[in-house]
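Record type: monomer structure entry
Structure origin: computed from sequence
Chain ID: A
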Amino acid sequence: MKRRILFLLISFFAAANSFSGTFSITGGRGFSNGKKADYIIFEKVSEGSFSFSTDSLALRGLKCYKITLGEEKIDSLLLKADEYTLSTDSQTVTFNNLSANTGYLIQYKDYSYGEELDSYAYTCVVEFKPLQSVSFPKDTVICSDLELAIEPVMEYFNEYGNTKKINRTLSVKYKSFLLKNEFPSVEEVTEEKDGTNSIQLSAMPYVDTPFEVTDLTANNDLKMNVQPIVTDTFYTQAVVAYPYMETHTKYEHEGDEGTDSTLHFYATIEEAMDNVTKFRQSATLVLNLYSYPSDMVNHYEWAFAEGEQAKNSDFQGAYTYFGKDINAFEISEPILHCIELTVSNIRNDSVCEHKSYACLQIAKSQLYVPNAFTPNGDNINDEFRVGYRSIESFEISIYDQWGRRVYKSDDITKGWDGTFRGDKASIGAYYYVIKAKGTDGEKYLKKGTISLIRSKE
């Protein structure tokens, strides 16, 4: 019998279909999934009604059918005037006394294109099934990609007799360990997800948490105001870390906009490579590394690759440090350096792990010596200061035109403020001698003049 029904359905649809029209809800609480309306869901089908309207010419040769595969029958509604009505302009047909899980087929003649065409429109009416349960796998170690199973599943059948699942839109609220600004904390997460028999969370709950699930299809589309379902507590085994690096090393150069003292970590080595230029690097670089892990982490492994090994994203055999944090770690080689942090949860013969990556390029040694400065108190170029990168030793002496040494320093981070023995030095030219050595072994001997410029007082 079902084969015969399918044959009849297919024979309907073999005709030319110029479908141009809209399904709309005219009574009861219901909604359609779109203009073409593969299905219409009603809170209570018995209280619902819907219309089909076409913007073509009048619905001539109209025939309406009710199709219920479960009962294996096709009923012509043409003789049941109480179950559908035509509007006065014969461009709208309205169906009443609906049946759940039933298809409604409209056949009509369309003259919109200057010739008679056989057209049809079809929708399946579905009784809404309130959400009854939400569950998650238990006694299973889940490190990522947590799915919540939802019941019951709503279905409809299309015009070819195929059963299709209906998406239900849900709001899911839970807690997780997330990065907020620079530092992580336990935060409440709310996601809106679509699913038929399950939904997959976008963010893994890295802390123990129940799930509060609200059926938005019921509340938003059907205006039902149903209460959320709260699950049992999910006990997480998943781990995550949000590593953070700070350094007090700095370099200065007039052409740079400032020094970024924070190295950011990324989920993949490719992202770390793409962002290698965002961190300002000058040796010797002294790092403090903090893992900032979730509570379930009990194992830490920092791997440091450099040069070609770093370029190849190869951490096998790299220098490795085991510990939650690292203090005063020095990097000086003027090459590419990459860091991989692996945190894991090793217990009961199961392991969840999470990796993070950061890359930086240590600059070759350089010196930048300006040719003038203006110590006038406007906080702009008030000091004679040497710009530098990757300098490990430094010495500067500045002399006036009579050969007197007016300034001496071995601290490259400091500059001459244009004073001598507590008084303002005269405007004019001064002679400097700089001796320095880079962390890459490069030696520097620079001599030249610097102009002290000050407005006349």
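Annotation 1: The first strand starts at residue 21 and ends at 27.
Annotation 2: The chain has four domains: 2-127, 133-230, 244-361, 366-452.
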